[in-house]
Amino acid sequence: MSETSPEYILERMSHPLIDELSEHLTPRAISLKKGDFLFQQGQSVKYIYYLLQGRITLNRSTIEGAKVILHVALAGDTLAEASLFSEQYHCSAKVDATAKLIGFKKSEVLQYLDSSPQFMKQLLAILASQVRELRSLNEIKNIRSAQERILAYIRIENRINIENLSLKDIAYKIGLTHETFYRELRKLEKSGQISRSDSMIKLII
Amino acid sequence: MSETSPEYILERMSHPLIDELSEHLTPRAISLKKGDFLFQQGQSVKYIYYLLQGRITLNRSTIEGAKVILHVALAGDTLAEASLFSEQYHCSAKVDATAKLIGFKKSEVLQYLDSSPQFMKQLLAILASQVRELRSLNEIKNIRSAQERILAYIRIENRINIENLSLKDIAYKIGLTHETFYRELRKLEKSGQISRSDSMIKLII
DNA sequence: CGAGTCGTTGAACGGAATCAATCGTCGTGG
DNA sequence: CCACGACGATTGATTCCGTTCAACGACTCG
């Protein structure tokens, strides 16, 4: 785990929460490779994180011993913010693809939270909008037709930014295999319903 | 829209946020029938809600004129908490099945929020855990096998409480048609992997 | 230079959706 | 108060489309 603060911390895409935290606390840079664990279920919560690059799977061991994947975090996701209010991590975080993260000390965040009601309110708003976003994602996955699901996703997000997330990641996010996602994108492009550049996928009309 | 405060407000299942709000603010009881709108996209936000019974679909009209379903709220869901921090509702809420709700005045909630940092923190924790829950639901929907998906859901929730939610509702929640859900439940029961009572579905072992 | 991953395309299969029909129950309005 | 409509739960048959497996080129990173 490297502990320098390299320039990539500053080169990240903007995120309201991380922007605010970076301004007031000292971010810690973390690099991990596939197979590493960011944290393990049961450990006491010391940090919360923001994932800049890579893929991290959160899974929990149930009482019966089975493992359940709770979430697959992709670039742009925050990790363990829920654990800000618990003593221990309720799941393990295993690195799937070489990851770069920013970490903030839980104690410092909580302290800042207490000192600034305004920040607290901002955090509330962020979480609320995260709930909204997740609900839409959830709803989209109830659309059986791959094509319609993709269209619904683009309509909600207005566009798909493919600079930060790979097509494969997006496919996963909306619950399609990457194969069908590629195929349907192609179809939509051919039928003139979407346009693709190397940074954006947009609806036509 | 009835505006009395009937006893069902007190008979609801417990919910940390609603419990707290009910204690400090005056809840408003609302009954709506199928086809009614709880609120419409663009209206200014006056209330936030808690759904006791029924089903309410949140949908948004996009710029292109298409309608996208953002969320289908079921009994136990909060509605429009995200709008606590916006001026207008960003979607419309249409009643699908006769609904009973509790409403709280936005202004009163915000005022209470300002007066009590402790409540604010509590709200933060609730939203954070909601994020966690939604992420798991999302993840579950990436499991293709109906049977495995159901098992994963029960593992995460520990059990399925079928007193408040119909089987149909649960099927929808995890992204299955009610037909397959019934069928797979039956199979799981027959093969001795789950047990069903009229209030609970549990894993065996 | 080689390993690994992403993007892409092809072929075949399987399982969940879909359509349809039935039963029981609950609420309700005439 | 009862008949009717609506909806949940259930089962059957069929279809279809997304998954799965497989293979390949391009590119990146070490």
Tag the structure with descriptive keywords.
homodimer, about 200 residues, alpha+beta, Jelly Rolls, Arc Repressor Mutant, subunit A, six-stranded antiparallel sheet, three-stranded antiparallel sheet, 7 helices, DNA-binding
Please, could you describe this protein's structure?
The structure is a homodimer of 205-residue chains. Chain A has 2 domains: 2-116, Jelly Rolls; 143-203, Winged helix-like DNA-binding domain superfamily/Winged helix DNA-binding domain (Arc Repressor Mutant, subunit A). Chain A contains 7 helices and 9 strands, in the order ααββββββαααβααββ. The first copy, chain A, has helices spanning 8-11, 16-24, 106-115, 117-140, 146-157, 167-173, 178-190; strands at residues 28-32, 37-39, 47-61, 67-74, 78-79, 92-105, 159-161, 194-196, 200-203. In chain A, strands 1, 2, 3, 4, 5 and 6 form a 6-stranded antiparallel β-sheet that branches. In chain A, strands 7-9-8 form a 3-stranded antiparallel β-sheet. In chain A, α6 (167-173) crosses α7. At the A-B interface, β4, α4 and α5 of A face β4, α4 and α5 of B. Chain A binds a DNA duplex (30 and 30 nucleotides) through residues 97-98, 144-146, 166-168, 176-180, 182-183, 186.
